[in-house]
Amino acid sequence: MDQVAFGRFVRRAIDEAKNRRGWTVTRLATETGVGRSTLFRWLAGDNQQFPELASVRAFCAALDIPVGAAFAALGIRATPAVDETHAAALADMDRILHRLTDPAVNEAEKVLIRDMLRYLARSPARNQPANGDAAAGANAVA
């Protein structure tokens, strides 16, 4: 992760939001859903961890910036094969994130979506041996 380049990217985006839209950092935080402290950490290049994907996407969406520009600043280079392979999954994730942030969607549905995502995050990938079976499978092949 290139924290310096990402900080420059965020600085340019914030400067443009101030100049073109007249937004303060507080307004930017409100419009993007990204907290002021997070914005300042991004600006300072003080990221102990990789920025949350949802926050980066929300930041870019609110400012009409292609999310790929943020990924490039972070040092993530997508290849065409990866883009094609994951395009449907990314579109699904965008729709899910939209539903989770849409004020018109009731809270019960949002809870259901979050519960399902947590469940799926704990599930082993398909065609993958479950806990500890990987070694057994490797030994059987050897």
Name the features.
disordered C terminus; globular; 142 residues
Give a written overview of the molecule:
The chain is mostly helical. It contains 8 helices and no strands. It has helices at 3-21, 25-32, 36-44, 53-62, 67-74, 80-101, 107-122, 133-141.
Question: Summed up, what is this model?
Answer:
The chain has 142 residues and is mainly α. It has two domains: 72 residues, lambda repressor-like DNA-binding domains (434 Repressor (Amino-terminal Domain), Orthogonal Bundle); 46 residues, no CATH class.
Q: Mind telling me the CATH superfamily name of the largest domain?
A: lambda repressor-like DNA-binding domains
- How many domains is the backbone divided into? 2
Q: What is the CA–CA distance across the termini?
A: 37 Å
Biggest sheet overview: none
Strand content: under 5%
| Fraction of helical residues | over 70%
Number of distinct beta strands: 0
Tell the overall outline.
Answer: globular
User: What is the CATH topology of the largest domain?
Assistant: 434 Repressor (Amino-terminal Domain)
Tell me the radius of gyration. Answer: 19 Å
Question: Quaternary arrangement of the chains shown?
Answer: single chain
CATH architecture of the largest domain: Orthogonal Bundle
Sketch the topology as an H/E string, one letter per element: HHHHHHHH
- Mean pLDDT level: 76
CATH class of the largest domain: Mainly Alpha
